[in-house]
Amino acid sequence: MSIYISIIAENAMTILTALTVLILFYYTKETYLLRKESQKQTQIQFTPSLALRNLKEGAAFANLGKGIARSVQVSSDVQIQSRPILLIPSIGAGEDRKLYYMGEKGDAAWIAQARELPDKVQVSYLDALGHEYRASFTREYSGMGVFREVTQERIK
Q: Which residue of 2, 28, 61, 81 is 20 to 30 Å from 151, comparing CA positions?
């Protein structure tokens, strides 16, 4: 029995060091997993998700995500009567914003109707943290001018 005690006493520092390394490794792994989960939750909290809808009043973007969409800009090749769609400053979570284009004389803005939009619409926007997103929508021919999301991705 005393031989076991003397072996443990002689190797106590080695045993404690090995035990400390194992505990540190476990703690580091758990901290890494918590950080990854926290990043996912933060991203979900700040990520907008846009949908192109055909409302009674006209075409509109709806933000289905939990984060705000800022500087929503429809691609410049999408034009109505040779006039581009105007920039939407922001769309809050759960909000709709109609698409407008400049009037003929530049003095008034008109609401874009879904039937006036081309079959493919691309849009870019920022989230609250400044990350850039791009989304593409294509027309579904159901007679109502409904658009289906094709892609929605984070660029930067």
A: 81
